[in-house]
Write a structure and sequence with these properties.
CATH architecture: 3-Layer(aba) Sandwich
Strand order of the largest sheet: 3-2-1-4-5-6-7-11
CATH superfamily: Formyl transferase, N-terminal domain
Number of domains: 1
Number of strands: 11
Bound molecules: glycinamide ribonucleotide
CATH class: Alpha Beta
Strand content: 25-35%
Structural class: alpha/beta
Number of helices: 6
Radius of gyration: 17 Å
Distance between the termini: 17 Å
Length: 222
């Protein structure tokens, strides 16, 4: 068993991806430990859940800081108290400063509800429907300075149905997000995904394009 990966998870709301990560840890599928959950909103439902689970939680309100740089420096200071191996953005709805992204280079990941590079930003499900997309999905990627950018590790495709609304599509994509995120973190813990200099490797080979969970990677049944 590899050493558990130390995680700090950043959220802004519901926290269902956080729950999926905690469930995978509890079920022995993910060698990791959530050291802390940090939110920019004190009323985030995911914070209450983490508290119930006896995880350290912290809320950092942007109104208490003069600017984005000040906020991100404070956030960085908090996160670094926990000495994480990996910082996990799980629905953290803030734009990050280049300094923050740079500080966590190669150890900052995000999940985004689209087949990146399509539909960066907000409202991805409505925009996918309006664009007439026949497939939608979710992506887990390392974070670079631009919004919802950086090397994508794993994606899942979700077919768009004729009677989909943004809400029904979002729900089906979210179910798949809950498979993706624990799996990518597991691969990182196991060293199957790693950085060598500026090269992202999967099983020792350069990762040229995102892995697709059901096409190239068959997850073993639990
Ligand atoms: C998820 O759908 C996640 O992909 C999205 O926010 C939701 C959070 O849900 N993130 C982004 O849009 C980031 N650009 P959760 O709080 O239930 O995990």
């Amino acid at each position: 068993m590899p050493q558990p990966l130390k995680l700090v998870v950043l959220i802004s709301g519901r926290g269902s991806n956080l729950r999926a990560i905690l469930d995978a840890i509890r079920n022995g599928e993910l060698p990791a430990v959530v050291e802390a959950v940090v939110s920019n909103r004190a009323d985030a439902a995911g914070l209450a859940y983490a508290q119930q689970e006896n995880i350290d939680t912290l809320a950092l309100d942007a109104d208490d800081y003069p600017d984005r740089d000040g906020y991100d420096r404070a956030l960085q200071g908090l996160i670094d108290c926990f000495e994480p191996d990996l910082v996990v953005l799980a629905g953290f709805m803030r734009i990050l400063t280049p300094g923050f992204v740079h500080h966590y280079q190669h150890r900052l990941i995000n999940i985004h509800p689209s087949l990146l590079p399509a539909f960066r930003g907000l409202d991805t499900h409505r925009r996918a429907l309006e664009a007439g997309a026949r497939e939608h999905g979710a992506s887990v990627h390392f974070v670079s300075e631009e919004l919802d950018s950086g090397p994508v590790v794993l994606q899942v495709r979700v077919p768009v149905l004729a009677d989909d609304t943004p809400a029904t599509l979002a729900e089906r994509v979210l179910q798949q997000e809950h498979r993706l995120y624990p799996l990518v973190i597991r691969w990182l813990a196991e060293g199957r995904i790693r950085w060598q200099d500026e090269q992202l490797l999967f099983d020792g080979r350069p990762l040229q394009q995102p892995i697709e969970i059901d096409r190239e990677y068959q997850q073993k049944p639990a």
